[in-house]
Amino acid sequence: MTAAQLFYSEGIRAVGVNRLLEEAQTPIMSLYRIFGSKEGLVEEFLREKDKQIRERFEREIERIANAPKERILAVFDVLGEVIADSDYRGCTFINVAVEMANTEHPFVEIAVSHKNSVRETFSRYLADAGLRETEPLATQLLMLMDGAFVRAQMHSNREEVALHARMAAEVLVDAALAAQAD
User: Fold this and answer.
1) What's the pTM value of the predicted model, to 2 decimals?
2) How far apart are CA 95 and CA 177, in angstroms?
3) Confidence class for position 35, pLDDT limits 50, 70, 90
4) How far apart are the first and last CA of the chain?
């Protein structure tokens, strides 16, 4: 099991250095030489996870959606694929923020940066759909997405969670576009 899998499935604090070294079959000096510390390894894990998630969402959204409004809703379609995974243990970045419980913690700053990039993506898609003022709707869509991530951890019917989030997103987007047209 890799460090990334351990951190995601068990939590950052629950996984000690000895367990990491044992699972990776790596000498302790390799960890310190490459990452400097467990914290350095966690930071690398979070940055790599951020990159992978952004790439996955971008790739899948472009594959399934052509029109700007469709891209907004496709975010929730991809979310449905993510939360349907049998290994799903929640949003890595929400989990990290909750686990660290300190908004000033460097890991939480990475999580916030990730969430800000999602909000900016929503904002870009909303602008592409013709919405002149993309805030606060971009933030509301992010909150809806985060809520779906959390709800999916608590309920077994994850497909329904994603579908409901998508439906709510569509109502919000349609209402914003209609209000702008008036």
Assistant:
1) 0.92
2) 33
3) confident
4) 56
The DSSP secondary structure of 83-107, one letter per residue, reads HHSTT--S-HHHHHHHHH--TTSHH
The answer to whether 161 and 152 have CB atoms below 8 angstroms apart is yes
Amino acid at 43: E
H/E stretch holding 179 reads: helix 158-181
Tokens of 105: 């913690």
Residue 31 inside a domain? The answer is: no
Cα dist. 40→72, 107, 108, 165 in Å?
Answer: 34, 10, 14, 35
Range 130-135 average pLDDT? 96
pLDDT digits (tens, 9 = 90+) for 62-103: 999 999 999 999 999 999 999 999 889 999 999 999 999 999
Token couple for 103: 């908004």
In a domain, 11, yes or no: no
How far is Cα 84 from Cα 174, in angstroms, rounded to an integer?
27
Burial of 157 (0-12, 13-18, 19+ CB in 10 A): exposed
Question: Over 80: is that where the pLDDT of 32 sits?
Answer: no
Whether 156 is in a domain gets the answer yes
Reference 69, options 136, 129, 137, 130; nearest CA is 129
Q: Which domain holds residue 93?
A: 46-181
In the 8-state DSSP scheme, what is residue 67? S
Is 36 within the bounds of a domain? no
